């Protein structure tokens, strides 16, 4: 009941207030490729189901995941085959990908949505699952990202026309990367103040990188290709966001198991620190229960600490991957050509 009214108002406003330019209006004698559209729906729909539920089912250990992925892959192949064959009225004009500005810009936007959507999902989950924050405080932790977006918008409006768009986008990507590295320094003793700066950098970097890269990627397209290019980019950005949430969830699960396997070797009686912790916990609990029960409760406490720390390190590793992804796409930005005088 929150999203529906807002979406309805936006839809009505879009129809009433936004008009298509002449080159974006419906073309004469254009035909709808219903077969390709059906294959697109099947491909995206089944792929989304696999990405959303695959990790819970153990991915390809589940037969239904294999079936859905096989059908989705087949539908995707048929869809792209029809688009290569249909030169007149394709749903997606794949020839636009020959434009390197458009190709690199689309890839950068996919990675940006991958990082930003996945991180927005992980941070509240980390605060609520590991540190006992309420859902309200988990939402409050995302406020700095909105403030950062506002600050980024003000900065971008101020420097537009004075600073090249590639420089603005470069600074935005660096800010997102630094924010990911700062998230990788979190521990169990943090407060909301510790997530303010990295979240603020994420918001600022998102605005400063996303807006210029959209302009750069479409600057070399013809007017009649802008609508198609925008549609393709929106589709790829949505896929990037879907991949991001799925990969992030899988990383948390797998990295947690990996760190648990690495750390469990230190939890034995030959480790004096572990033996001392167990002894102290046993003596403390022995005030309330018998010695055997107290020893069992102490070992259980160590096991809980192991799970807690392994999960924390899984989040840290995932945030560091986000930072690495932001830095890795910077060379793609440098390969893009900035058009000073746009004739089209």
Structure description:
- The chain is mainly α and 344 residues long.
- It has a domain at 31-91.
- 74% of the residues lie in helices and 0% in strands.
- It has helices spanning 3-17, 34-53, 63-85, 100-131, 135-140, 143-159, 165-183, 192-218, 226-263, 272-285, 291-328, 330-335.
- Helix 4 (100-131) runs antiparallel to helix 8.
- The mean pLDDT is 86.
Keywords:
344 residues; 74% helix; single chain
List the SSEs and their pairings:
Blueprint: H1 3-17, H2 34-53, H3 63-85, H4 100-131, H5 135-140, H6 143-159, H7 165-183, H8 192-218, H9 226-263, H10 272-285, H11 291-328, H12 330-335
Helix pairs in contact: 2-3, 2-9, 4-8, 4-9, 4-11, 6-8, 7-8, 7-11, 9-11, 10-11
């Amino acid at each position: 009941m929150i999203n529906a009214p807002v979406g309805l108002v936006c839809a009505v406003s879009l129809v009433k207030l936004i008009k298509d330019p002449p080159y974006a209006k419906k073309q004469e004698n254009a035909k709808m490729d219903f077969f390709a559209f059906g294959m697109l729906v099947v491909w995206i729909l089944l792929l989304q189901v696999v990405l959303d539920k695959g990790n819970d089912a153990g991915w390809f250990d589940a037969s239904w995941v294999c079936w859905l992925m096989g059908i989705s892959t087949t539908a995707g192949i048929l869809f792209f085959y029809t688009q290569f064959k249909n030169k007149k009225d394709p749903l997606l004009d794949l020839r636009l990908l020959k434009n390197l500005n458009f190709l690199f810009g689309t890839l950068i936007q996919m990675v940006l949505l991958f990082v930003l959507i996945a991180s927005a999902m992980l941070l509240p989950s980390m605060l609520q699952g590991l540190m006992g924050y309420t859902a309200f405080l988990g939402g409050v932790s995302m406020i700095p990202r909105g403030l950062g977006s506002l600050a980024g918008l003000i900065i971008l409006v101020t420097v537009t026309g004075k600073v090249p768009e590639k420089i603005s986008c470069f600074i935005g990507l660096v800010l997102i990367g630094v924010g990911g590295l700062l998230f990788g320094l979190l521990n169990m003793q943090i407060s909301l103040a510790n997530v303010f700066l990295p979240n603020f950098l994420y918001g600022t970097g998102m605005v400063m990188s996303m807006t210029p890269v959209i302009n750069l990627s479409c600057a070399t397209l013809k007017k009649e290709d802008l609508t198609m290019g925008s549609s393709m980019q929106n589709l790829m950005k949505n896929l990037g966001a879907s991949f991001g949430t799925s990969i992030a969830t899988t990383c948390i699960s797998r990295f947690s198991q990996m760190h648990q396997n690495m750390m469990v070797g230190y939890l034995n009686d030959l480790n004096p620190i572990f033996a001392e912790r167990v002894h102290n916990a046993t003596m403390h609990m022995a005030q309330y229960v018998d010695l055997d029960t107290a020893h069992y409760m102490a070992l259980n406490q160590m096991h809980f600490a192991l799970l807690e720390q392994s999960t924390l390190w899984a989040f840290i590793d995932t945030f560091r991957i986000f930072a690495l992804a932001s830095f890795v796409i910077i060379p793609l930005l440098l390969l893009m050509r900035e058009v000073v005088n746009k004739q089209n």
